[in-house]
Amino acid sequence: MNQQTDFDKALKDPTLVYHSPREVLVDQQLNDEQRAQILKRWEQDARELDVAQEEGMTGGENSLLDEILDAMEMLGVDLTSAEAPTKQGGPIE
Domain range holding 75? Predict the structure, then answer.
């Protein structure tokens, strides 16, 4: 596998590469900055899924938001966006 291709793919859609947020934490091919970028993308996607679910626009998929936030905390990522006034949180950096 090509490390850069997998990172790029995971940054666009983490679920294409990882089954759980913890898998991001243990991927030895990533540095902490890359892990944080992937988890922030996953957080945004999960928040959007939660909003869609509340509006009845999905089939009941699990967003994994709690697991993502736990993984981000373990990595030491600033969770300020997790406390934003909207469910979508803050922007991805």
Answer: 3-83
